[in-house]
Amino acid sequence: MNIILLSGGSGKRLWPLSNDIRSKQFIKIFKKPNTDASASPNANNPAGQKAAAFADDTYESMLQRVYRQIKAADPEATVTLATGKSQVSAIHNQLGEGVGISVEPCRRDTFPAIALATAYLHDVKGIPADEAVVVCPVDPYVDEGYFAALHQLWELAQQGTANLVLMGIHPTYPSEKYGYIIPETKDTVAKVSTFKEKPDAATARQYIDQGGLWNGGVFAYKISYVLERARQLLAYTDYADLFSRYDTLTKISFDYAVVEHEPDIAVMRFTGEWKDLGTWNTLTEAMEENVLGDARLNETCRNVHVLNELGIPILAMGLQDVVIAASSEGILVADKEQSSYIKPFVDAIDQQVMFAEKSWGQYQVLDAEENSMTIKVTLNSGHRMNYHSHDKRDEVWTVVSGKGRTIVDGMEQPVKAGDVITMAAGCKHTVIADTKLQLIEVQLGNDISVNDKHKYELEI
Amino acid sequence: MNIILLSGGSGKRLWPLSNDIRSKQFIKIFKKPNTDASASPNANNPAGQKAAAFADDTYESMLQRVYRQIKAADPEATVTLATGKSQVSAIHNQLGEGVGISVEPCRRDTFPAIALATAYLHDVKGIPADEAVVVCPVDPYVDEGYFAALHQLWELAQQGTANLVLMGIHPTYPSEKYGYIIPETKDTVAKVSTFKEKPDAATARQYIDQGGLWNGGVFAYKISYVLERARQLLAYTDYADLFSRYDTLTKISFDYAVVEHEPDIAVMRFTGEWKDLGTWNTLTEAMEENVLGDARLNETCRNVHVLNELGIPILAMGLQDVVIAASSEGILVADKEQSSYIKPFVDAIDQQVMFAEKSWGQYQVLDAEENSMTIKVTLNSGHRMNYHSHDKRDEVWTVVSGKGRTIVDGMEQPVKAGDVITMAAGCKHTVIADTKLQLIEVQLGNDISVNDKHKYELEI
To answer: Alpha-carbon distance B51 to B43, whole Å?
Structure first.
């Protein structure tokens, strides 16, 4: 099976755990299967041990969960992430360097993105044009049955059942959040009669009576089919050409470019578990435990979830139907229903990014003053930063754990805990981690900005 | 007027803003009078400016408020704080170096503490033995009328109305939290008939019908009176002797040692505003604004108070009757009624102190790892740390703002933003702030502890 996972969106709806550069699919909130349940703390016991931290290896992200599930269902699956540049580091950090990534040079809506990823599969990965591919968002919360269904979807496309084969999700309630697919019959696989936009609840009920299904954005096609559409609409010749011209492409959705013009579409009914974890309300429903991170709830709390990425304890008393989420970006305390209206409030918070996962590890802002910033940098073993310089700030590194090497203006030297490295503005520098390495970076200058950075090639 | 302010207690009931070394009276939560109200943010406006930070000069602590009120009511008042060693730095930081402090070498209950402070007034400050003194807790929330009443109380004692003159607070409801004073008559000043322990509500109602008054722990006496009792009970000869023998004194309360044996006690009825801000519930009632620090409440929040000392925003949505308090010690989210049951939960949180006010400024823990701690140190202009060394840790200072001088193993050198100073274990060091000075301190070692500290004299 070939599968393209669409990894999009900046996702402010799960603030403060998601932000402009950490999308919700990267938050580690799901307990991995087969991890030791006896280590689970009793959240109601004030004297109890604090819960496992987020950094703990017993938790995985939506991305890691779905990737693990695909590989379990089909170890031979070719998985390609279709995403923007800003997510590449986090994807490599969470899935390793081996995963296929079709990087969109900029955002150009779903048709260019799917066309580019399909071209990547064919031209870069060498998948024959007559093979089918399944496109699926990266963030549904699903069980094994879903992946078996994806495989069936792929086989239907492979067999030429239709030019496009969609997954239709059997509705569990008359939702106003989804578009609906109306099939010609109520058979498991049927021709699509028509598509409907997000309805009100009464209309949704009518659709469901007609056998209507939720459109979860999951579909399959033969590679040749989408490449042909790309040839017509984007003058596609090959992947490299499409990639280089990407910023000139018109923004157009896959629905508008392809689906609306295609008479030969089938839909496969899926009745298994499928959840869209887009808000705190739905996300916390999928959590196995009420507490992630260091938090205590007193005995009068009811239906309270706490997700605490900070290194300080949270105490919740006498709350009902509340979610508390804390990270170095901020703290949310919300009634669960109300939490779905979060977006305009987060948009109004003008804030620098305080935490980021990079391909080499992660950084966290510890303190920001007018003319200085203090940052904790964690490099994974065997990784290094880009070789870079800044125009307008000096930096001081104090290594607090691990071993590695620094290169400063071409001079390499070994470093270990306790070593201090000072770098004036303009000086080129990097650090290479021979073991996991942590350092405290103090930035000093009148105009500290993430954009003040020049990158250089480094031969080592 | 001579006044002794009793500044006690570690106060975990207002966690996380109060802790083992920061008592509730030091938290800056009250808006100073005559500060610009137009700068006040609209907490319900998501696009509104963030509220003033705690560090802002427009806020004052309970201690600062009561001290300012005393000085406004009587600019000539001699104010002495009776307190333990751990509060001396914070008191000097908040009130300046000029305030009188009677430091208890250890905790020995209220009679030794009051005797020591009275001896301090007489023997150190030179107040004549026939002058009266008023004793008052540091943390009532009161207006000007209270201080006028304190002055009347002082005059009554000065005139010899009785050996002890108590303030009796006119009860506003049949509280079970206070002891009651039953006067012989309902006159403004009356002889005390008897004292009653904290009653149940029905009994409290009976006391109030009899003209009973709350005992708020406020009383006045002539210095000679308490010194005479100290002579009898503690073999007092002078302040220095009492101070040096303080740890050998028996723990005994002022009530038990003095009040219960004294037939000549008067009480003065006080009918003005008086609040005991001992819990989040009562404290938030006294706040002028719902938000202190960076927080936004959406329009569905009702009776929500947020006190945020952290440098990151808090967003509250759809909450009712909730207090949110956040500091570098932790985060409390509590139903206001429930918040009064906080103590056992806080006792169970085994935590290092993350923030402290010192006589020279303050420090804040930014990060704690197994073998390192990162701390932000702020020195007030003209102040310096103790000259000290550590056995088991190295330290690195990176100055991030301001100017000053470091002394390391006797060597003095000027420092400014960007300078880095490394200090190996065993090395003696201090920093002197010529302007307000901030530095990032990285501590490195296998056994980092606040107790690993040797202090030295420094001649400068």
So the answer is: 8
